[in-house]
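Q: I'm writing up a methods section and want to include an example of the input and output format. Could you take the sequence below and give the corresponding predicted structure tokens, formatted cleanly so I can copy it straight into the document?
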Amino acid sequence: MPTETPQPAFVLVRPQMGENIGAAARAMWNFGLDRMRIVAPRDGWPNSKAAAMASGAGRLLDEAVLADDLPGALADCTYVFATTARVRGLTKPVYAPERAMQVAAEKIDAGEKVAVLFGPERAGLENEDVARANAIINVPVNPEFASLNLAQCVLLTAYEWRRASGKVEMERTDMGGADWASHLEVEKLADHYEERMEEAGFFFPDHKREGMKINLRNMWSRMPLTGADVRMLHGVLRQMVRWKDRGE
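A: Here is the clean output for your methods example:
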């Protein structure tokens, strides 16, 4: 059975190649989507080539809703997006994929049923298909090469859905088992280096001494140090001092 996670239905309209249907299923499942609807596939259904390409996402094909025509596929939907790379000459809201999936998330949170239409590989959706949609998703492709593979378009939209649903970390640091150094640890490291550099006569000439020390402290505070980093830097300095003493 499909997951219980609220999500849009992805509707493949008259897809031509089984391989692309299977690749679209993989793209959907990569980003946690599993509500596929298929309208009048050219080569019939089920399709062995789709199953082979879907690999671990074959369940989506088993559970896909098959429809003879687009109105039948959209019968229970309250809001429909149509993906296209071309200007259609129709008066409709036009969204970039990112904003479209934000709108989809808002509508689904409000209890609506949302669908996204993807056209056949040869030329995309017909104007008759787009006319049945409430809004257009305009994919910002290179105008000199606007042809976008079906599975690629599904992947792009599915990724934006995952972003809109709050499941994408925009940035993180993998700590690898370490912990960030405390302010006290960094302070002691700065003291250690300042003392040794003072002994080595680094802070010269005298009238620049305080400014150099402030710059050095500022450098330590800017560095994202872990506790392990601090211990290693203490060790580096101690070893350098021992090496110098042996040389004398």
